[in-house]
Amino acid sequence: xxxxxxxxxxxxxxxxxxxxxxxxxxxxxxxxxxxxxxxxxxxxxxxxxxxxxxxxxxxxxxxxxxxxxxxxxxxxxxxxxxxxxxxxxxxxxxxxxxxxxxxxxxxxxxxxxxxxxxxxxxxxxxxxxxxxxxxxxxxxxxxxxxxxxxxxxxxxxxxxxxxxxxxxxxxxxxxxxxxxxxxxxxxxxxxxxxxxxxxxxxxxxxxxxxxxxxxxxxxxxxxxxxxxxxxxxxxxxxxxxxxxxxxxxxxxxxxxxxxxxxxxxxxxxxxxxxxxxxxxxxxxxxxxxxxxxxxxxxxxxxxxxxxxxxx
Length: 311
What we know:
Elements: E1 4-13, E2 16-26, E3 29-34, H1 41-48, E4 56-61, H2 69-75, E5 76-79, H3 91-100, H4 106-119, H5 135-147, E6 153-157, H6 165-180, E7 184-189, H7 192-198, E8 201-206, E9 209-214, H8 219-225, E10 228-234, H9 237-245, E11 250-255, E12 261-266, H10 269-280, E13 286-291, H11 293-303
Parallel strand pairs: 3-7, 3-8, 5-6, 6-7
Antiparallel strand pairs: 1-2, 1-4, 8-9, 10-12, 10-13, 11-12
Helix pairs in contact: 3-4, 4-5
């Protein structure tokens, strides 16, 4: 079997709903789980990786029950959005020690660690301690761990969050490469313009229910009518503001009070992110680029009609 299947799956945490009555068949390729915080994205990922059990219903990951950890461990790679590393380890040591769990010799684990760290373009920092990594570097070392044992299913929770534009583009290219190899790449996000661009399939969640699935057409057009806010932390913020404000799709560029970044409103997120790629090449250092949550949530509500799912 080459699909991930949810058959009428529900998960409750006491009286709190995680997800309810989820029936899905997810084929190979890039599938994005989209929804605001609390919509059920992480619960769905934890269910397919066996970290939580369904309250009811059945799940199959390429024919494997997620409650069979030995089989699932070899099949899946999971990158969560939370930092958790043994103290004092370098990126290389972290990946090597993880691979030893699969029974690899020290030499084989070392070779595989080097390969996957280089694949996420972190080779220069491999022997630095993770405690000294930036947010984007920590994000990439988590991704390296997820791919280290060459899994057929990759489950990635907010993998693009905190990455600068160039690394973001490189990471998306990796997703496409893995999908072209016939793997499952499951990505959670609340950045709608990105999932519309990169995904083979999109699953929209709200309040623990699947409200839509499949291709979502015209999301970029919707976003042109509803400006999106983007937070940027960078050097030379004054120059950056002047540069982006000259673009016809930018309607506002406001400096942060500490002078270390700016808030930008754009009518075309695709054009804006492409423009940031060019700006980064001109010597601007961007620590992070992320959507402003309130605006993204309101846009999401607009796209799904602001309605509760049928129960």
